[in-house]
Every structure is written in structure tokens, then in C-alpha cells.
Design goal:
The chain is of the alpha/beta class and 308 residues long. The protein has eleven helices and twelve strands.
Amino acid sequence: MRIGIGIGEIAGSPATVDNLVEQAKQAEADGFASGWFANIFGFDAILGCALAGRETSKIELGTAVVPSYPRHPTAMAQQAISANAACDGRFALGIGLSHQIVIENMLGMSYAKPYSHMKEYVEVLNPLLRGEGVGHQGAEFKIMAQIQVAGATPPPLLIAALAPKMLALAGRETAGTITWMTAMKTLKDHTVPRITDAAAAAGKPAPRVVCGLPLSVTNDPKAAREKANQAFQIYGTLPSYRAMLDREGADGPGDVAIVGDEASVGEQLDRLAEAGVTDYLAVPFPSGDDGPASVARTRELLIKRIQS
């Protein structure tokens, strides 16, 4: 299982241009396989990857994740191909639906048919990412277009898939999925089997399963879980993540966070790998009263694991 790390505000630092680039450079120096940029209401994740790509040479840089609704597929493809060129082929495009409260209440767009939207979006986006011409007349998009960026290669596409139909779509049509607030039992019994079976049925290679979960190395797991419930409270209220927490039998985000001392956290990471996770996206958070010290301790454990 490859170990990556979140880059941006979720990593505990302000998302300025200089800070994002420095985080990516440090992640590469520390040996992380990948660095993942969140795309919420701050710095643009694809642009962040492109900028960091010019200052790094080995680390994979990806988005976790860019909402599909606000970006026309041609705009998404153009940005992604350009970012992959800037990263010398080390960019991964992670996209997702976002949430009804964002798409409808904040952006004024319809969220009536999220699966149909993503299915058609991927149908258009995939050939555009390959530089192919697209003639598409669908329910949502009517497109005659082609994107070509000199010296670029197609970036891998991953979908933030949680429900069965979305996991099947990800397995058939993309390189894999990126999950959040989805823990051990659900990954083993739901996520990995569904996406893997769909990929196999479509004659595709085994998919990537990028699992994002909060992480804190601490001697006080109870306090850490309480801290996670506070820091990640919003994710316990959004329907898609709430469904994953309910499937796991978790009351809140703190129940699925990876917390404990070095030995306990190591065992939990081993179980993620055994469940079929190919990439762990670590989101370190401060726990208890030690704040930054717990984040440093968490990062130290991850680096030791990478180097072992």
C-alpha cells in the first residue's frame, strides 16, 4: 500500500501558493508516494498540483477531489492535461459530485440526477483527456470539441465513489476511486469488491482504491477521537459520508479516524492494506493538548513506515 498525504488547509497550514509548494516539496523529500490537494472553497487544486509539479520531480500529485458540476468537461480536461504536462506526467485527476447543499443551495445548479450526471460527464471527459475529438449529444452535454496540449499525456482519472452504482462506474470507466470517511469494514465488504468486480468485468486492470482518513498518533485515543469529531464534524452531516459512517456503524468521524500509539496505528494501516486499499491518503490532525507535537509524531511514524 502506497502512502500519500494531504496538502493544503487540511494538512493544518494555510493554503498560500508558497506554502502549498513547500508542503509538496517536503512530502517528496520525506518519501511520500503522493500528495493530494483538496478543492473546497480556497486555492484551486489543479492549479496547486501544476505549481507544485514544477518544483518536484518524483512525487505523484493529485486532486481529492474537484467537483464536476461547476466545470464543463472541456474545461476540466484542458486544466487536467495542462497540469499533467506541468507535472511531467505525475498528475492524477480525482473528481467527485460534491454535495446537494453545495451544488443546489450555493451554486444554484440541479443535483437531481447525480449518477446520470457523472456517467455522462465521464463519457465525455475520458476521450477529451486522451486528446480525442468528441461529438456528444446527451441529456446534459452537447459537445463538439477536442483538447490538445503539446507534450502532454493523459492523466489517470479517479472518481470519489461511495455508493454501489458509482463504484461500478468507477471500475468500468476510470483508474479507480478516492474515498473519504470510509473505514475498514466498509472498504473490505463494500468498496473494494464492487469496484474490483466492475473493473474485471470490463476487462480493465485492478483499480486503485485511494482511502482518505484522519490520522493521529497519540497516547490518548479517546481525546483524539473527540478532537476528530470536532475537526471533521461537517462530514458526519453530509448524506454521502453519513451513509458510509452508518454502514460502518460509526456515530461520527472520530469513530473512523485512525488513532492510537505507534503500534496501534501501524496495525490499523496494515488492516487497510489487507482490505484492498492501494493508496492511503493520510490527513494528520492535532490531538489532545500537544497540538503540533502530535502532528509531528504522526508524520514521523508515516515516514518510518515508508522507509521500512
